[in-house]
Recover the amino acids of this structure.
């Protein structure tokens, strides 16, 4: 398990390796069952607990994806800036002044 995954899941919840889409699908089915069925309190509590765990997994996966996307965007921006010819920068900066 990666350090980021351990930080997001210190207790080592089961299902932490679950893909985001699968966790979301399970969460949706839990919500649907809780909204539609007349479930006993014990079952509702168990499903709520599982849903909470799945929300944490989804949140961690989304946060990890956001970090990766921001890193890729920053790397792309540095590449674009690095590829601008110095003569162009000088000419543009004189026109703006």
């Amino acid at each position: 398990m990666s350090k980021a995954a351990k930080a997001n899941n210190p207790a080592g919840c089961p299902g932490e390796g679950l893909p985001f889409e699968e966790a979301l699908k399970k969460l949706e089915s839990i919500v649907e069952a809780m909204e539609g069925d007349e479930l006993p309190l014990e079952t509702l509590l168990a499903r709520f607990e599982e849903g909470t765990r799945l929300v944490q997994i989804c949140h961690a996966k989304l946060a990890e994806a956001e970090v990766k996307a921001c890193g890729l965007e920053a790397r792309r921006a540095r590449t674009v800036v690095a590829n601008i010819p110095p003569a162009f920068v000088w000419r543009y900066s004189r026109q703006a002044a």
Q: What stands out?
A: The chain has four helices and no strands. The two ends are 53 Å apart (CA to CA).
